[in-house]
Amino acid sequence: MGETEYRNVRLTADAYQRLKDRKQPGESFSDTVERIAGERSLLELAGLVSDEEAAEMRDAIRTREERSRDQLDRYVEELDS
């Protein structure tokens, strides 16, 4: 098995703090960088669905949000009475 190689990386204080804030308990900075670097960007999702499919998704989300708000309003009314 090969020996692990290490590299030094210079970060601004702001960049270091942002990385530190993303670091999870028990995770090394290397682990954090590997996890973050493996995340997908929303830009990579562009073109996966048609405009029509995206509109249908937005409508479904809006409908669900409205139902949730209505349900919450009913609960509040019950509590107030």
Could you explain the architecture of this structure?
Keywords: Toxin-antitoxin system. This is Antitoxin. InterPro entries: Put_antitoxin (IPR003847). It holds the Pfam family VAPB_antitox. With 81 residues, this protein is mainly α. It folds into two domains: 1-39; 48-81. Helices cover 60% and strands 0% of the residues. It contains three helices and no strands. The protein has helices at 13-22, 29-37, 51-80. The radius of gyration is 23 Å and the shape is elongated. The termini are far apart. The mean pLDDT is 91.
In a nutshell, what does this entry contain?
The chain is mostly helical and 81 residues long. It is built from 3 helices and no strands.
**Helix-strand string:** HHH
What is the percent of helical residues? Answer: 55-70%
Taking the alpha carbons of the first and last residues, their distance comes to: 70 Å
Shape: elongated
Summed up, the domain count is 2
Number of strands: 0
Poorly predicted ranges (pLDDT <50, ≥5 residues)? none
Helix/strand-derived category reads mainly alpha
Biggest pleated sheet: none
Tally of separate helices: 3
Radius of gyration: 23 Å
Task: Estimate the mean pLDDT confidence.
Answer: 91
Strand content: under 5%
Record keyword descriptors for this entry.
81 residues, mainly alpha, 3 helices, 0% strand, Antitoxin, toxin-antitoxin system
List the helices and strands and how they pair.
Elements: H1 13-22, H2 29-37, H3 51-80
Protein name: Antitoxin
Keywords: Toxin-antitoxin system
Pfam families: VAPB_antitox (PF02697)
